[in-house]
Amino acid sequence: MRLRRLSFLAAVQLLIMLSSAARPAAAPSAPTLLTPANGASATVPLKITWSSTLNPANINGGYNWQVSKSSTFSTLVLGDSTNPATTEDMVSGLANGTYFWRVQAVDNTGQSAWSAARSFVVTGPGPGSLAAPVSGLVAEHAGYDVMWLTAAASSAAGAAFAWRALAWLRRPRTGAAVGATAR
Q1: CA-CA distance, 112 to 53, in Å (whole number)?
Q2: pTM of the predicted protein model
Q3: Per residue in 50-90, pLDDT tens?
Q4: Between 3.30.200.20, 2.40.110.20, 2.60.40.1220, 3.40.50.40, what CATH number should domain 33-125 receive?
């Protein structure tokens, strides 16, 4: 009787071990977007933050984030990834307008669904940021000219517009006017 009970307990233990080993680990859950609030007005650069759904000590995995002009994310404006311990990132280079963003968690068990998307409205550059100048504007200052031009920047998701500053260093000029002139 005692041997039969021990055999039964050993069989139950074996079944428990096999059933727990056969279950695959679950993929991480989708992060929750924290800031900016849905529909918030923002200046660039702006910080996006989300909840942690990964073990920050993991060395594999992280969070993917995307920004789009479309709520369906049919074309992306920006996208990047962070490590599992980082639940925020800075977003810059956006022109004025409405944007949508979302985040996804990824680790060795798989990837989460994308978070519910949120929107924000870029109203311009923040303090200490350069504003996008008028195309063709030249600022002259004793010794060099800085000319601002528009440039099309393309990404895997499509074309986006970016501002690029081109500076031409010239020999120092005597009596050069200080100011801005349009060319």
Answers
A1: 9
A2: 0.61
A3: 999 999 999 889 999 999 999 999 999 999 999 999 999 99
A4: 2.60.40.1220
